[in-house]
Amino acid sequence: MSQGPVQPDRPDRPEGGQGDLFSKFDDTIAMRANLLASGVTDPFALVMEKVHSPTRAVCNGRETILLGTYNYMGMTFDPDVISAGQQALRDYGSGTTGSRVLNGTYQGHRECEAALREFYGMDHAMVFSTGYQANLGIISTIAGKGDYVVLDIDSHASIWDGCSMGQAEIVPFRHNDIEAMEKRLKRIPEGAGKLVVLEGVYSMLGDVAPLAEMVRIAKANGAMVLVDEAHSMGFIGENGRGVVEEAGVIDDVDFIIGTFSKSVGTVGGFCVSNHPKFDIMRLVCRPYVFTASLPPSVVATAATSIRKLMDARDKREHLWKNSRRLHGGLKALGFRLGTEEPQSAIVAVIMPDLEQGASMWEALLREGLYVNLARPPATPANMTLLRCSLCAEHSDEEVETILGMFERAGRATGII
Ligand code: PMP
Question: What pLDDT shows up at residue 387?
Fold first, then answer.
């Protein structure tokens, strides 16, 4: 049958008018149209055509250095990790086709949870299908109607969504503001359930939370504490256990949330805890129960990677060296950065606005460098950021090359 000419929209289909459920996205549609009208490559539609290593890929037909991934420890091409995944694929097939509480718990899921318990030195570990679901599940399940969640205003979307889903009272406080947190905690009615939710590293600016003080105050005020260590696992702390380890409060927190999509180098999420009743979560946590479990190849790569991260001192040291060099070099070139000193593997470069940010992003891509362009609402204070995340596999020479690229692109776009 011939397709015939393209038909105009059916008149009974609302478009832009009353009843069009898409009209709430008009501002975002206009923002994207304006950006693309300036002639810039769409920063939100990049395709990695080939990936050679944790730090190199072909993007838009060009060999590119990757400086905008969460591959902090460079585990994605580790030969042991890859062969564990291949073996599991052969031995167990491509997927579990079921929930963890029915047919979806394989030996590999148990081994992955054992690796996490060992990594953190904690009694319980529960693996979710993503880090997003780990926050969504744990927060919504433990903090329900009548409970209070006190959280940093710059918390990740999965934390906010977990609060909404659980229907607890949400009490936000100013980013990393210890006094504001304490004030909010003290205002909560006597006897109410309280959960303080913090992140080790905040991913937009790459800054670290003052966890020693915050955890102490939360505990003194009778709150349970959950810390999302998505951006510090494997890297920060003597054993890579995160900012909680570095700050000496790992034994005081009730839950650590993490992800396999960053340092671990695959996909998945988890929660570890010493709470004696923690295991009941497996029956009551809906984002754990009502979804399929991770494929056997994924949990096998995760478990292998986690075990290798226990013994990755050299990688941690090299990643710190990279972070310090990039931060110092960009600062010396005159870029405005998210933190005065390097605090993590993330170095955020603050752009004057979205248009200039997008043209700098594109100039860097033409140089052969990929960074993340981050814009509101993901960013704090309406900032446009070029987010650089370093990898332990970036060589010293690559970091120098990156600085040269920033210098040329910065001058070409007038940002420095
Ligand atoms: N928490 C934080 C702080 C994050 O930055 C992210 C992802 N960027 C997540 C949780 C969710 O992790 P995942 O990618 O595994 O869903």
Answer: 97
Instruction: Judge whether 259 lies within some domain.
Output: yes
Distance between first and last Cα of the chain = 59
The pLDDT assigned to 4 comes to 42
Residue 137: which domain range? 79-309
Please state the ipTM of this predicted complex: 0.99
Q: Which of 155, 158, 202 to mutate to test the pocket of ligand 1 (most atoms within 8 A of CB)?
A: 158
Cα(3) to centroid(ligand 1), Å: 44
Which of 309, 335, 357 lies at the terminal end of a domain, its last residue? Answer: 309
Q: Are residues 246 and 217 in the same domain?
A: yes
Q: How far is the CA of 151 from the centre of ligand 1 (A)?
A: 16
CA 111 to ligand 1 center in whole angstroms? 22
Torsion 83-88-91-93 (CA) sign: negative
* Residue 199 CB less than 6 A away from ligand 1: yes
What pLDDT does residue 5 have? 42
SS3 content of the chain, % helix, strand, coil (to 5): 40, 20, 40
Residues 359/245, Cβ–Cβ less than 8 Å: no
Q: What is the pLDDT of residues 30-40, one digit of tens each?
A: 988 988 888 88
pTM of the model: 0.94
Residues 260 and 348 in one domain: no
Q: Is 229 in the pocket of ligand 1 (CB under 6 A)?
A: no
Residue 278 in this model has a pLDDT that exceeds 90: yes
| Residue 361 in contact with ligand 1 by CB distance below 6 A | no
